[in-house]
Amino acid sequence: MHNRISIVLLVALATTFLGELKMNPLGGDSFRFSLGTAAFFFGIIWFPSVPPLIIGLVVGWFIVLFRTTLDMFVLGSSWNQQFFLHLPAAAFYFIFAFVLTVTNIRARLDSPIQGGLIGAFGELAGNYGELLFRCVLGESYSLGWRSFLILALFALLRSFFVIGMYNMLMVRQLRAVGMEQQNRMERLLLINTNLYEEGIWLRKSMVHIEEITRDSYELYRRLIQQVKRGHLDKESANLALTVAQEVHEVKKDCQRILAGLSKIIRQEELTPRTPLSEIVSLVVRANSQYAEMLGKKIRFSSHVDLDLATNRVYGLLSILNNLVANSVEAIEREGHIAIETALINEHVEFLVCDDGPGIQEEDRNLIFQPGFTTKYDTQGNPSTGIGLSHVSHIVSTFAGHLLMERTDGRTMFRVRIPTANLLGKESEHEAAILYH
C-alpha cells in the first residue's frame, strides 16, 4: 500500500512540474500542451501495480489544486476564478486514464504500434473532453479540422515518444536481467564442474578405502591367529578390528556423499547441448578473472572453428579450465594464452598454448604423475600437483589423448577426443569409473 502511494505521488509530481513546460497551440492561456502528458502516460504503463483510474483521479486533482494555488499567488486573482479555470484539466487526465483502462493498454505493450495508437487516441479523447468542458464553462475554442489535426499530431508524437522510451528501457532492463542470469548460470556451471572433479577424486579415494578396509580385516584375522597361539594379547587384535570398523564407517559416509554428488553430476544428461564456442568463452572469462586476481596481465585469445555442441559439459569444462588455469599460474607476470579447436580425423582437438617459461625436458615425463609440480607460491610452498594428472584422468574417460609439446618458445597441450564421445552421453566406461 505504501509503495502504491509513493508511485502515485511520484507520477503526480512529475506530471505537475513537467506540465509547466507548456505551449498554447489553440490560443488562450488555459488549454496547454506540455511534457506533463508524456510523464503521465509513461507513469501509467511503467507502474502496473496501480490502476490507471486512480492515477488519473489523483493527478487530475493534484494539478488543479497546484495550478490554482500558483496562479492565485502569482496573479493575485481569486481562488474560485482560478479553480474553475483549471478544473477542466482534471477531466483530461480522468478521460485519458479511462481510455487506457478500457483498452487495457498494459496488456498491449508487446505491440509498440498498437500501444502508441491507443495512447494517442486516449490523449486525443482527453483533449476533446477538456475543450468541451471549457466551452461549457464559457471559454471559446475552435473545434474544426485544423484543431483536430494539431491535437492528433501532438498526440501521436508524444504517444510514440513515450512508447519508444518505454521499450528502450525495457530492452535495457531485460538485457541486464539476461546478463545477470547468464553470470549466475556460469557460476553454477563452474560449481557443478568442481563437484564433478571432486566426485572423481572421491571415487578414487573410496577405492583406496576399500583396499585399506580389506587389509585391516586381514590384519585382524592374522592377529587372532597369533592370539590363539598365545603370541599376542587380544587387545591388539580388538584394536585392529576397531580400526577396520571405523574405516568401514568412513567408507559408508563417502558413499553417501558420492551418491549426492552423482545426482548433481548426472543432471548433465538433462541439460541442453552447449556449443563448444560457449564453453571456451566461459573458460576464457573465468581465467581472465583468475589472472586479474593474481595480479597478472595476460591476454587471452580463442578460435573455435567448429559448429559443434555437446552435453558433456562438466568433463570438457573441467579439462579446459584446468589446462588454462595451469597456464595462468605458469606465466610470471605478463603473457598470452590461446585456445584453439579443430576437427582432425573424426577427433576434436583442443589446443591450449602459453608463452610461459615452459617445462624442463627432464620433467616432461613426470608432469602427469599425481603430486608432481614445478610451481611454488611466494612463500615457497609447492602446489598440489594434481591438476594435470586430473586432466589426464578425465581425458581418458572420454577415450581421448593428452599430449604436451614445446615449440618456438610456447608450451602447448593437445587434447584429442573422439567426436562421437562429445556428441553422445557418457559412456558406460566413464560411468563405471565415476559412479560405481
UniProtKB/TrEMBL annotation:
The keyword ATP-binding applies. Pfam families: HATPase_c (PF02518). It comes from Collibacillus ludicampi. It is an enzyme of class 2 (transferase). It comes from the Bacteria. GO terms for molecular function: ATP binding; protein histidine kinase activity. The lineage of its organism: Bacteria, Bacillati, Bacillota, Bacilli, Bacillales. This is histidine kinase. Residues 261-421 form the Histidine kinase domain. The chain crosses the membrane at residues 39-63, 83-102, 148-169. Keywords: ATP-binding, Kinase, Membrane, Nucleotide-binding, Phosphoprotein, Transferase, Transmembrane, Transmembrane helix, Two-component regulatory system. InterPro entries: 2C_sensor_his_kinase (IPR050980), HATPase_C_sf (IPR036890), HATPase_dom (IPR003594), His_kinase_dom (IPR005467), Sig_transdc_His_kin-like_C (IPR004358).
